[in-house]
Automatic annotation (TrEMBL):
Residues 208-333 form the GGDEF domain. NCBIfam families: GGDEF (TIGR00254). Residues 319-340 are annotated as: Disordered. This is GGDEF domain-containing protein. Residues 329-340 have a biased composition (Pro residues). It comes from Actinomycetospora chlora.
Length: 340
């Protein structure tokens, strides 16, 4: 076996799916020991709180459901202005206000339980959260040491799993020669599809924010027909260079074939939209204009859903540009909850 093949085998064997398995164990255990109507592990990113794993018997919560962080009871727990265990949300003004707003949308929250999950450097990753439709016995507060222990366990598993993912990604980058486009040096379609297959599971279990951006180079046929295919190849290489200089080096960038390009911006929706505008300006200024579509990754739809939506929006943009109109924008966030 060659060194490249050995690296590929190592990359495909690592890492184990530790964090999502630990989340599943924690919510199932809490649902058994502290039987509230719902328990969940959530991710807080891009101004939203998204359900990663749920154990629900009363609300219909499911992975991928999201709520704005400003509408979440957890914001007050994280800030220290609300307790981690609130048997009766009517007794904490901030939580009572959110519970009243949620009730107006058909979601009753009489009890709130939450504790943060933090990264190795102390940043907020998400929360373990429990809810009950009716207030419960005040003795529930005795479970706070258990709750803190379980969230600390998840923080430790998260750190180890994140380190393993980073190592695996480094190995994968080292074996990408066969997955590179010979003309531009970017990922080819095979490399792009393998990246999406590998990362879809990782992004789903961590709930990381990301957006898929699809691009189609305008006018390549005219360049080929007028100046020849060598000029067309230079046009493609120039487009690739502009794209590479505008995005982060860690964001995957691919030429899918012909005049189609694609990338994943590993940032939130707002930053991704800002990136699209920078890309459009840079490409237009460099004389390699492209039609562009962007769509966010969601836990429910994964990268397949984001790619399909971004591709459709890219073709809508192409039609709009030809007609001199503005293209439609992508949906900003996944389906939302009144509160979490």
């Amino acid at each position: 076996m060659t060194s490249t093949q050995e690296l590929r085998v190592a990359a495909e064997l690592a890492p184990p799916k530790a964090f999502d398995a630990a989340c599943r164990m924690v919510v199932d255990y809490l649902a058994h020991v502290v039987p509230l109507d719902a328990w969940a592990v959530t991710r807080v990113a891009d101004g939203h709180q998204t359900m990663l794993v749920t154990a629900d018997s009363g609300y219909g919560l499911a992975p991928g459901l999201s709520t704005p962080w400003t509408a979440s009871m957890c914001q007050y727990m994280v800030a220290g202005s609300a307790p981690r265990i609130v048997p009766d949300t009517r007794r904490v003004p901030d939580l009572e206000r959110i519970a009243t707003e949620a009730a107006s949308q058909g979601m009753q929250v009489g009890t709130y339980v939450g504790t943060p999950i933090v990264t190795g450097d102390g940043r907020l990753f998400g929360t373990v959260v429990g809810m009950n439709r009716e207030p419960v016995d005040p003795g529930l507060v005795a479970q706070e040491p258990l709750l803190d222990l379980l969230s600390s366990l998840l923080s430790s598993v998260l750190e180890a799993d994140t380190a393993a993912v980073d190592s695996a990604r480094a190995l994968e980058r080292a074996v990408s020669d066969a997955e590179s486009d010979a003309l531009t040096g970017l990922l080819n379609r095979r490399g792009w599809e393998r990246w999406l297959d590998r990362e879809d599971d990782r992004f789903r279990r961590f709930g990381d924010p990301a957006s898929v951006v699809m691009l189609d180079l305008d006018g390549l046929k005219e360049v080929n027909d007028t100046d020849g295919h060598d000029a067309g190849d230079r046009h493609l290489r120039h487009c690739a260079a502009v794209l590479r200089s505008t995005i982060r080096s860690t964001d995957p960038l691919a030429r899918l074939g012909g005049d189609e390009f694609a990338l994943v911006a590993q940032v939130g929706v707002e930053d991704a939209q800002n990136l699209v505008e920078r890309l459009r300006e840079a490409l237009d200024s460099a004389g390699v204009p492209c039609s562009i579509g962007s769509a966010p990754f969601t836990v429910a739809g994964g990268f397949p859903g984001a790619c399909a939506e971004a591709d459709a929006l890219m073709y809508a943009d192409k039609r709009a540009r030809r007609a001199g109109r503005s293209a439609p924008s992508p949906r900003p966030h996944p389906p939302s909850l009144p509160t979490a």
